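Q: Is it fine to ask for two folds in a single conversation?
A: Yes, each is treated on its own. Send the first.
Q: Here.
A: Result:
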Amino acid sequence: MTTKYSKDQPQGFSNRIERVAIVGAGGQMGRYIAEHLVKAGKHIVTAITRASSTSPQPEGVQVIRVEYGGDDDAALVEALREQQVLIITMAVTAPTGTISKIVRAASKAGVPYVLPNWFGNDAANDALCKDVLFSGFRDSILGEIKSLGVSSYLLLNCNFWYEFSLGGGPNRYGFDFTKRSLVLFDDGDVAINTSTWPQCGRALASLLALKELPDDENDQPPTLSQFRNGSIYISSFLLNQRDMFESVKRVTGTTDTDWTITHESAEQRWKDSMAALQQGDRKAYAKMLYSRMFFPTGDGDYQSRRGLHNDLLGLPVEDLDEYTAIAVRMGENGEVA
């Protein structure tokens, strides 16, 4: 792709992102993204939500209510007109057809950049994506964006959300805080990248605060355009289960003897949960997904393979125990479904 420069753009071109729309701004990830974009003060942030939605929207965002479940997308297209970036943050169980419809509407509205509901594992790892059933969605939605020929996609590779996953029960990071039990996958020594919700929000706010294009051939990145049709890699921590356990013990003031610790094969957990999923047991999905990430192949550690964009985006080093404490509270109070 030929590099574009700010100096060559038409008169009136603004070399920064000023208008950002979010579908799902009231959700788990969406509210952190919206809050950090608003806090940065560099964008007009618009939450696009269903007319029937009762979810509270973050302070400081403009709200446009529109139904996008039917065949008529005129209202959605109009809501997206003049937006420079569309961020889609929907549940992993959201119908691909709904996301596809939003992507097509963004194309009709001429939105230059779309984040198409990818906040997870390394999108460039084909074997991993196949094993966790993400390949179909990835290939379909990215292929559609490319074929429409209007928008460029941006993918945030942040891996599992730390607070959510640690506090989310034994099918995720193996911890049950109400029973004080821990399932170690194999020996519990496989490290994976994991990110907090605020770090994800900061990352996107920093990304969209970059210049869109280099000024000229002598202007070096970072710019938003360098990530066009590609991935942003961020992380809060690179941890194995034993690292997490040490943090949990510090936060809770417990020792090994206060916990029931068992071991299971990550590969066997993945096989068993995949078989259950194929038999129609949707509850096996999380167990399948998380077990695969802890394979000794190191697929969950993209930091070692790809590097991180933390420094480029000016992301802070976070306090592990601070977020472990949040996860413990969430787990004890049953805040994670």
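Q: Second one now.
A: Result:
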Amino acid sequence: MASKLPRSSAFDNIVIVLIGREKVKFELHKGLLMYYSEYFRGAFNGSFKEAEENTVHLPEEKVEVFKLVNSWLYTRHLADTLEKETSLAFGLLLGVFLFGERRIVRLLQNDTIDIIIRKCTENNKISPFIVKAAYENTPTSSPIRKLLVHIAVHRSNPDFPSKHSENYPKEYLIDVVAYMKKLNLAGIETWTRDWSFFVPSNYHLPVNAAGTVGNSTET
């Protein structure tokens, strides 16, 4: 099962991950990174420089994001409690999701989606900045796009997207309108503001036994 925790053999050799241009150093178990991430399996296998030196540098990643990733790798949680997880800023949660996108850690993406949905039940306002960042850094099939579209249609005010549309990416607005039309044709009511519609598994990426690969479902 994709939710299985890694075996004790994953806690083997220590490797170094350098984060950001400042090269902040993190020491982690190589087997753990390779268990969850197809990217790290490729980096630490074979004759690549990273495999020979047991060091990988990720200059584009942010330290505050990788601290959460590091916590998740060892505990499968981004924070000590559910309350602390939902108190994390949307920007940080999106950063973790996008790390999973770049480094092919699908199970991390799924767990982050779950936290975002829990957080949205308390505050369903998603800033244009978050939407823009998500659309600029994910493929069209990404579940985070699907979730953001569904939040707009099922949880926002009925005057969206006609109001404030200039603040959002054009591609996002097209997706929102297309989804509204799809629901209207099916006779499904929009703007219900009902969170029971948001089943986390509807926004999960398929994963294999190591929690890595798969494609999302359609909007």
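Q: Anything structural to flag on that second result?
A: Two points. The two ends are 25 Å apart (CA to CA). The beta strands are 14-19, 24-29, 55-58.
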